[in-house]
Amino acid sequence: MKNRIKEFRIKYSLTQEELAKKVGVRRETILFLEAGKYNPSLNLAYNVAKTLKTTIDELFYFQDNK
Amino acid sequence: MLNKIRFFLFIIISVLIITIFLLWTSMEVLKNGLNSSSVAMFVAVAILIVFLIYAIRRVYNSLKRGDPLKDERTRKIEMRASAFSFYVSIYWLLALGFSIDYFKLEIPPSSVPGLGILGMAIFFGFSYWFFSKKGE
Question: Which residues pair with A2 in a beta bridge?
Answer without folding.
Answer: A61
